[in-house]
Write a sequence for this structure.
C-alpha cells in the first residue's frame, strides 16, 4: 500500500463527519428574531387563484390552482410569447408586414356569429406591421390580431395551436391544452392558474422588452383608441401587467404582476364574477403578499462561498461556488434568524474538474432546513507531478496525525 493510499484510507474514516462552517455573515445581529406571525391569505371570490413570488417561485397563496379552466383571452399571453420568441430568434421582425386574411377579419368561430369579441379593427387584405398586431393583441386584446399573427407564423391557426402546445410543454404547463390563438370557447381548450403563472413568469423573464408593452394603457389603430382592459394599471402604479380575459364560460380572469422594493409578485385570478371583482381580488392578493413577505437574495450564481486547501494538485487553493442564485421568499421579520452551513468533504484532492460537487450549502430558519444546494469546484485543477504529490502526501499524513485541518488554507 502506498503512502497516498494509506492517507486516503485514513481520510475515509472521517468522510462521514463533514466539516461544518456556520456563515455568521448572514446574521444581521447577534440575537435571534422572534418568529413572524403571518396571517392567513384573504378570502378570494373566484374559481381558482394563485399568488407567487416570481424570483423564488414560492407560492404564497392558492386555491384550486391545478383546476383546469377555460382561459379566455389569457390565451393571448402564449400567442404574444411565441411571437416574441420568433422575433428573438430572428425568424420575424417587428417591421414585418402581415397581409390580413378574411378569417382574421371575420373571426369565424362556431356559435360566434360574424365579427365576434374584442378586436383591433384590422381590414381584409390590409398590410399591418407585426409591431401593431402585437399591441393589438396585448393592449386591445384583439382576436383578429391574434389570428393574423398565428397565420403569419404558422400558415394557419390550427398549426399555430400545435406550436402553442409545444411551447406549453417546454414551459412545464402540464395541465394546458390550446386549440386556438385567442381563447374563444372550445371544450378542449383549457389551462390552470399554476400553468398561467409559469407562462407569465417566462414572458416577464425571457422577453422583458416585449413584456413592457403590457403596461401600456392605450393604443390607437385605424383612428380607434382603445384602453387596456387591465384596470389595475390605473389603480396601482406598481402594477405593470399582465392580461385580462372574459367569456361566459371562463368568467372574469386576470393575471396581474407588480414590483415593489425589488420584489415581483404575480397573481392569477380565474372565474371571478365581474370585471371589478377580478381587479379587486387580484389587488387583495398582491397587497397580502407585499405586506407579509420579502424576497431575499443570499447568493448570486457563481458566487464563491469559501476557499479550501487542495491536495495533490497543481494549485493549492480552490474556490467553492454555488452555480445558481439562492433566492428565498421569507415572512417579513425573520431574515435575521437565517443560518447557513457549509458541509464540505473532509479532504479535497486533485484532479478536479470545474463543477465537481464537493459539498453542500444548507440554509436554516429556526431549526428547519429551508434550502439545500450543491457546493461545486469553481475551476479545474490538474494533478500535481510526482514530487509535488509526494510532498503533499507526507504533509497531509503529519497534518492529520497531529489533528490539523486538511481544508484550512495556508497563507
Amino acid at each position: 500500500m502506498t503512502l497516498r493510499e494509506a492517507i486516503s484510507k485514513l481520510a475515509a474514516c472521517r468522510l462521514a463527519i463533514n466539516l461544518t462552517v456556520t456563515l455568521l455573515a448572514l446574521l444581521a445581529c447577534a440575537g435571534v428574531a422572534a418568529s413572524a406571525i403571518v396571517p392567513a391569505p384573504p378570502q378570494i371570490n373566484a374559481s381558482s387563484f394563485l399568488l407567487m413570488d416570481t424570483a423564488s417561485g414560492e407560492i404564497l397563496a392558492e386555491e384550486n390552482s391545478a383546476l383546469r379552466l377555460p382561459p379566455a383571452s389569457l390565451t393571448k399571453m402564449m400567442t404574444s410569447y411565441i411571437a416574441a420568441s420568433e422575433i428573438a430568434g430572428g425568424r420575424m421582425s417587428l417591421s414585418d408586414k402581415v397581409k390580413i386574411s378574411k378569417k382574421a377579419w371575420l373571426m369565424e368561430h362556431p356559435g360566434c356569429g360574424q365579427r365576434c369579441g374584442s378586436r383591433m379593427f384590422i381590414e381584409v387584405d390590409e398590410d399591418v406591421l407585426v409591431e401593431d398586431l402585437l399591441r393589438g393583441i396585448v393592449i386591445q386584446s384583439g382576436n383578429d390580431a391574434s389570428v393574423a399573427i398565428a397565420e403569419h407564423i404558422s400558415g394557419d391557426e390550427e398549426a399555430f395551436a400545435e406550436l402553442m402546445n409545444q411551447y406549453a410543454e417546454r414551459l412545464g404547463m402540464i395541465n394546458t391544452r390550446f386549440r386556438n390563438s385567442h381563447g374563444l370557447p372550445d371544450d378542449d381548450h383549457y389551462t390552470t392558474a399554476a400553468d398561467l403563472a409559469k407562462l407569465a413568469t417566462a414572458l416577464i423573464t425571457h422577453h422583458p422588452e416585449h413584456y413592457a408593452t403590457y403596461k401600456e394603457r392605450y393604443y390607437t389603430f385605424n383612428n380607434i383608441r382603445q384602453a387596456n382592459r387591465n384596470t389595475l394599471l390605473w389603480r396601482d402604479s406598481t402594477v405593470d401587467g399582465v392580461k385580462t380575459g372574459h367569456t361566459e364560460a371562463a368568467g372574469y380572469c386576470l393575471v396581474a404582476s407588480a414590483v415593489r422594493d425589488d420584489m415581483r409578485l404575480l397573481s392569477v385570478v380565474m372565474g371571478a364574477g365581474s370585471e371589478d371583482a377580478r381587479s379587486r381580488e387580484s389587488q387583495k392578493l398582491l397587497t397580502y403578499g407585499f405586506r407579509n413577505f420579502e424576497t431575499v437574495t443570499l447568493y448570486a450564481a457563481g458566487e464563491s462561498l469559501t476557499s479550501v486547501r487542495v491536495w495533490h494538485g497543481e494549485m493549492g487553493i480552490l474556490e467553492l461556488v454555488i452555480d445558481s442564485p439562492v433566492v428565498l421568499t421569507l415572512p417579513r421579520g425573520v431574515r435575521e434568524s437565517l443560518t447557513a452551513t457549509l458541509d464540505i468533504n473532509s479532504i479535497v484532492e486533485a484532479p478536479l474538474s470545474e463543477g465537481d460537487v464537493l459539498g453542500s450549502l444548507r440554509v436554516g430558519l429556526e431549526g428547519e432546513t429551508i434550502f439545500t444546494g450543491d457546493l461545486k469546484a469553481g475551476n479545474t485543477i490538474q494533478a500535481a507531478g510526482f514530487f509535488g504529490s509526494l510532498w503533499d502526501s507526507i504533509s497531509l499524513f503529519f497534518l492529520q496525525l497531529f489533528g490539523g485541518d486538511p481544508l484550512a488554507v495556508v497563507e
Notes: The first strand starts at residue 19 and ends at 22. DSSP finds eleven helices and 17 strands in the chain. Residues 275-292 form the longest helix (18 residues). Residues 45 and 277 are 8 Å apart (CA to CA).
